[in-house]
Amino acid sequence: MDASSRSTGALERSAIRKVSLRLVPFVALMFFINYLDRTAISFAGPNGMNEDLTLSAAQFGFASGVFFIGYIILEVPSNLALHKFGARRWLARIMVSWGIVAALFAWVSSAEGLYVLRFLLGVAEAGFFPGAILFLSTWVPAAHRAKILALFYLAQPLTTVLGAPLAGWLMTHDGFLGLAGWRFMFLAVAVPAIVVGVIAWFYLPDRPNRARWLSQPEQEWLEGALATERETKDSGGSHSFRSVLDNGRVWALCFVYFGFIYGLYALAFFLPTIITGFQEQFGVSFGLVERGLITAIPYLPAAIVMLLWSRDATRRGVRTFHIAVPALIGGISIPLALYMGSPTATIAVITVTACAIFAALPNFWTIPSRFLTGAAAAAGIALINTFGNIAGFAAGYATGGLRNLSGSYTLPMFVVGGFMLLSAILMVGLDRRAKSTGGRPGEHGPDVDAHTKAVG
């Protein structure tokens, strides 16, 4: 390796390290607050809200899922607006909007009012997650994207690791500000969204050449590497909005993502309820903070497994098995958890499911940005995430409805497992299609070319 190559390698490592330390943690904090606000209902439900609002399991499931209808309606338009106006302005606007709506949950008085607020919360949050994925994907070349997205995704399991005990603790403050504990919890987790949204307006740079914390050579290297990547995609990939709608691979990825998110939100919305049911099932009882801590248990190992799995994906390049194997494990483990004979065994198997889901997600999101660019990348990522939001609605509503119909969570958890197994099958199918057509992985299959593997 000559001196020029060593210099470029050092510049690359330095630039990626700074992005990892200065940009990703802040966007991950935004995601942490986002996920906590949208799943706060899962903590409130079995801890006073369902009783105060007289909600059945189906009504709670509908309230959990109706959020995604509002999100779905504005998902693609919101991401196209982000592409037009810039991530800094649009992501900041989204955060302040949803923070205001989230605070209103503290004064909800009926099931119908809860439905309306959950729908409006989805409208306010629309575009945040795909916008954040798009934003980070436009900051680093493909070789480093799995690592960066894994660091970003770390916020999601940590939201439960930290957020579940926090929510439990907040709900112990019954009567504070004249609010029931669950109402105070809603208010307390909404305020940070408004504060961080205002900060984001001033903190987030729109592109590398506007980041003061990057040296000029680092800015030039990042801009050059990203420009080269865009040119490659423009010459062989999809880069118009119409091309997204005509792209079979985008639609296949939509259904793959549907399975993962169905499993993720079935756990997120109903795990606290399942833990509350341990009292009847196993004759044990837990306090509010204890329930929060137990809810958090599966997500700490999930965060560790996600980082290790993504590290392997960065080293090898993302391969089909990085996504299909976790889908297979999750599909088998989630219904299996219902046949365990103790709370410990049940949580242990649910932990395996959480590890599987989170191991796959950051690697999955490296795929669309390999063959989509410009407005197509914004629309394609939003379209895929729209299917995830449809899954979020279905997971909440169908799980609650099937629980009412069957009298247990056995049937709904088998449905969750079936969708995750379908995700595994589709990923393998995409890989075989690529091999049979002889096309570039960036166009047809999920594997990456050798040049996208990590450097150094």
TrEMBL record:
<feature type="transmembrane region" description="Helical">
    <location>
        <begin position="20"/>
        <end position="36"/>
    </location>
</feature>
<feature type="transmembrane region" description="Helical">
    <location>
        <begin position="345"/>
        <end position="365"/>
    </location>
</feature>
<keyword id="KW-0812">Transmembrane</keyword>
<feature type="region of interest" description="Disordered">
    <location>
        <begin position="436"/>
        <end position="456"/>
    </location>
</feature>
<feature type="transmembrane region" description="Helical">
    <location>
        <begin position="90"/>
        <end position="109"/>
    </location>
</feature>
<dbReference type="GO" id="GO:0005886">
    <property type="term" value="C:plasma membrane"/>
</dbReference>
<feature type="transmembrane region" description="Helical">
    <location>
        <begin position="372"/>
        <end position="397"/>
    </location>
</feature>
<feature type="transmembrane region" description="Helical">
    <location>
        <begin position="409"/>
        <end position="430"/>
    </location>
</feature>
<protein>
    <recommendedName>
        <fullName>Putative tartrate transporter</fullName>
    </recommendedName>
</protein>
<dbReference type="GO" id="GO:0022857">
    <property type="term" value="F:transmembrane transporter activity"/>
</dbReference>
<feature type="transmembrane region" description="Helical">
    <location>
        <begin position="250"/>
        <end position="271"/>
    </location>
</feature>
<feature type="compositionally biased region" description="Basic and acidic residues">
    <location>
        <begin position="441"/>
        <end position="456"/>
    </location>
</feature>
<feature type="transmembrane region" description="Helical">
    <location>
        <begin position="115"/>
        <end position="136"/>
    </location>
</feature>
<dbReference type="InterPro" id="IPR036259">
    <property type="entry name" value="MFS_trans_sf"/>
</dbReference>
<feature type="transmembrane region" description="Helical">
    <location>
        <begin position="182"/>
        <end position="204"/>
    </location>
</feature>
<keyword id="KW-0472">Membrane</keyword>
<feature type="transmembrane region" description="Helical">
    <location>
        <begin position="291"/>
        <end position="309"/>
    </location>
</feature>
<dbReference type="Pfam" id="PF07690">
    <property type="entry name" value="MFS_1"/>
</dbReference>
<keyword id="KW-0813">Transport</keyword>
<feature type="transmembrane region" description="Helical">
    <location>
        <begin position="56"/>
        <end position="78"/>
    </location>
</feature>
<feature type="transmembrane region" description="Helical">
    <location>
        <begin position="148"/>
        <end position="170"/>
    </location>
</feature>
<keyword id="KW-1133">Transmembrane helix</keyword>
<dbReference type="InterPro" id="IPR020846">
    <property type="entry name" value="MFS_dom"/>
</dbReference>
<feature type="domain" description="Major facilitator superfamily (MFS) profile">
    <location>
        <begin position="23"/>
        <end position="435"/>
    </location>
</feature>
<dbReference type="InterPro" id="IPR011701">
    <property type="entry name" value="MFS"/>
</dbReference>
<feature type="transmembrane region" description="Helical">
    <location>
        <begin position="321"/>
        <end position="339"/>
    </location>
</feature>
<comment type="function">
    <text>Component of the tartrate utilization system and may allow entry of tartrate and tartrate dehydrogenase.</text>
</comment>
